[in-house]
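*** Backbone structure tokens ***
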Amino acid sequence: MAETTNAANAAKARKPSFLKGLKAEFKKIVWPDQETVAKQSATVVVVTILLGAVIALLDYLIKNGLNIILFLGQG
């Protein structure tokens, strides 16, 4: 019984130190400025659009290539 009480007290004692450590770590974070965030966001959007276009083009070519192969195989 005493062991569970000691374990509970130890857990309670660790919580404040964890929160203090978390607060200390958050103070170390260097947040990017607005210009950097805007540039990186624009880059992500452009790359996403380009990659989507490449995937759509490949899908179109594969679909039509398979249709040609299947159509030629029938005749």
Observations:
- The mean pLDDT is 87.
- The two ends are 85 Å apart (CA to CA).
